[in-house]
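Dear Dr. L.,

I hope this message finds you well. Following up on our conversation about the binding site, I have prepared a predicted three-dimensional model of the protein together with zinc ion. For your records, I am including the exact sequence and ligand specification that went into the calculation, followed by the structure tokens. Please feel free to forward this to your student if that is useful.
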Amino acid sequence: MPVLVFVVICTSFLLFDSSGRGYYNPVFRRIVCHDSGECLHEIGHASDHRMGWISESNEFHQSLFYFTYVDYTLVGNSSHPWTGRILFYPCFFSPCLTEKNPTVWGFGTGWGGGRELYADMLLWSDGKPENMPVEFREYFDWDLVSRLIEKYIER
Ligand SMILES: [Zn+2]
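The resulting structure of the complex is given below.
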């Protein structure tokens, strides 16, 4: 019997690990991730949570529209690589930008929307404020980000 329990534990661990999906659990403020890119994305969700899910605020959405408008319209063509990424991000031009995204909670299949875009922006910046366009820096808790990078990536 103990052997069977041992086998079950080992098997479930392997299944879990090979699924390869990171996630952020907001109830326990716990991150599970497997590589630095995945960890940065999940740290993004933790920063969003700490900031009161600021990715769902009008201010954040206005900054997204302002950034892409200024970069694309006033400059004449897009000079910043993030403009295309933001404009073509799933759900950017639909109401789901402002909807809560349940995929944050676990192994969801969908992606897109404001929460996922916010988390990916931290990934695009490589977790560094100097790589983040100045319009978005205030929306991230950089103290928390650097602490979580130390904990989950630079261990
Ligand atoms: Zn996510």
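In brief: The chain has one domain: 22-152.

With kind regards,
A. P.
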